[in-house]
Specification:
Largest sheet: 6 strands, mixed
CATH architecture of the largest domain: 2-Layer Sandwich
Number of helices: 16
Distance between the termini: 65 Å
Structural class: alpha/beta
Number of strands: 11
Radius of gyration: 24 Å
Strand content: 15-25%
CATH topology of the largest domain: Beta-Lactamase
Number of domains: 3
CATH class of the largest domain: Alpha Beta
Order of helices and strands: EEEHEEEHHHHHEHHEHEEHEHHHHHH
Length: 462
């Protein structure tokens, strides 16, 4: 980044964010199109400390100009957020911009919230792209309400920009590697009774697979936590592993929405409180694993999780819209104001569905000699089996519903034909199929919405 960039006048307002460790993010910017002066950068966030590159005000203006040019005649639905990804090889940066319409000083403007990284961090950032965009998108939803009411959008955006910088810094130092050595996991132990009870391991892996590979592992011993994290990551794809995080031995990270597996340390009192709002906004339901007391709990299945998430999100935005003052409801507050919906803060429940797939895998994998490649090969075969079952389930439902033209009413036949009579087996394969075809749970279980208890009653009746 050098010369040739026009200076910004007046100077860009800047916030420095204190981040522990090396943050790969160069800066985040909020810019808008001024009908007289063109692209204007209203605010810039940058991590505090040494960076591989530094952006001047002129360079930030140049990048804002690049992202906002061509958006003047933007035609989009009200409330739409367009995500654009730029790779500027000549400048050595990548820019992820979220383009949206908002009101500034009573006028409708085209705005852009952007994050800027060095081009060398492209491979590191791509697995985390979806998580970052989803979090920024919801920040924009709240920010547009703040703009409409004449409040300061910068305060709202800062609440999401700073945690994303912390997330990227933590992933830079503690990301799970793409390739995991099975010798660093529980699956390499000769006798799992010493380090991990067999029943606990079975329940942890089974619930992990039932919640689409998303788990939070908490404990007091970082080595034990990380061993379980690496074990669960064996059941993820390489890309999903790069979106998972080991725990830090010195102090605990915060819970981060959008990661697949993350290890968290308890505090000095032996407790760790998960933030309700962030857990509910995760793209998939989550398994909670406590390695100190060997407990496993899980959130409701995908369709119920999505229902609760959307309902709470609407409640939160509605409550923000009804505020009379910028200080009435801080944007991170758990919302209770909607009389029709009171969130249940106890969102984790016991694992009630038993399975045969994981049970058979655990029984058989420990019959093989440890320290050899046999267990790794057997694990790969098991994952291939689950993937093929998920593809078969999708094809089965597609044929029965004429590619979605009619509702699915053959659940009993599906369970018998695909040998998924155990509810845990069905949940595992359905979860894998959900990642291949989003919305599958909602389509199969249909409307009206089933709670977990009603769903179990339905399954038991077949």
């Amino acid at each position: 980044m050098s010369s040739g960039c026009p200076p910004q006048s007046p100077a860009v307002a800047k916030t420095e964010v204190a981040v522990e460790g090396e943050c790969p993010l160069l800066a985040a910017t909020f810019a808008y199109w001024d009908n007289i002066l063109g692209p204007r950068v209203r605010h810039m966030w940058a991590p505090r400390g040494e960076q591989p590159m530094a952006l001047s005000d002129g360079e930030v203006t140049f990048l804002a100009n690049h992202t906002l040019n061509g958006e003047i005649l933007r035609s989009a639905e009200c409330g739409a957020v367009d995500v654009k990804f730029f790779v500027l090889a000549e400048k050595g940066v990548i820019i992820v911009s979220l383009i949206f319409d908002g009101e500034l000083k009573g006028d409708k403007n085209t705005c852009a919230l952007s994050v800027i990284l060095p081009q060398t961090e492209l491979a590191f950032y791509l697995p985390l792209h979806a998580a970052c965009v989803e979090r920024l998108t919801h920040g924009i939803r709240k920010g547009r309400i703040w703009m409409q009411k004449g409040y300061n959008i910068i305060s709202v955006l800062s609440l999401e920009i700073a945690p994303i910088m912390e997330l990227l810094a933590s992933m830079k130092s503690h990301c799970v590697p793409e390739e995991i050595d099975i010798r660093d996991t529980v699956l390499n132990d000769d006798d799992i009774g010493d380090s991990c009870h067999e029943g606990f391991l079975h329940k942890a892996i089974s619930s992990h697979l039932q919640t689409c590979g998303c788990s939070v592992v908490v404990g007091s011993n970082p080595e034990k936590v990380n061993k379980i994290v690496r074990t669960l990551c064996l059941f993820l794809t390489p890309a999903e592993r790069k979106c998972s995080r080991l725990c830090r031995a010195s102090s605990s990270f915060k819970y981060d929405t959008g990661l697949f597996v993350q290890g968290l340390l308890k505090d000095s009192t032996g407790s760790f409180v998960l933030p309700f709002r962030q857990v509910l906004y995760a793209p998939y339901p989550t398994t909670h694993i406590d390695v100190d007391i060997n407990t496993v709990k899980q959130m409701p299945p995908c369709h119920e999780h999505t229902f609760n998430q959307r309902r709470y999100m609407r409640s939160e935005l509605n409550a923000l819209w009804k505020t009379d003052s910028e200080d009435d409801i801080p944007p991170e507050t758990v919302i209770y104001t909607d009389e029709t919906f009171t969130p249940d803060l106890n969102i984790f429940q016991d694992v009630l569905h038993t399975d045969t797939l994981v049970r058979s895998f655990i029984d058989e994998v420990f019959l093989l000699k440890p320290g050899l490649a046999l267990r790794s090969a057997y694990l790969a075969q098991f994952l291939l089996l689950l993937h093929r079952k998920a593809l078969t389930l999708l094809k089965y439902i597609e044929d029965e519903t004429q590619k979605g033209k009619k509702p699915f009413r053959a659940l009993r036949n599906l369970k018998a034909d695909l040998d998924l009579k155990a509810e845990g087996d069905l949940n595992i394969v359905m979860a894998m199929a959900e990642k291949l075809r989003a919305g599958l749970h909602s389509f199969v279980f249909g409307k009206p919405f089933y709670t977990s208890m009603q769903e179990r009653d339905v399954l038991m009746s077949f």
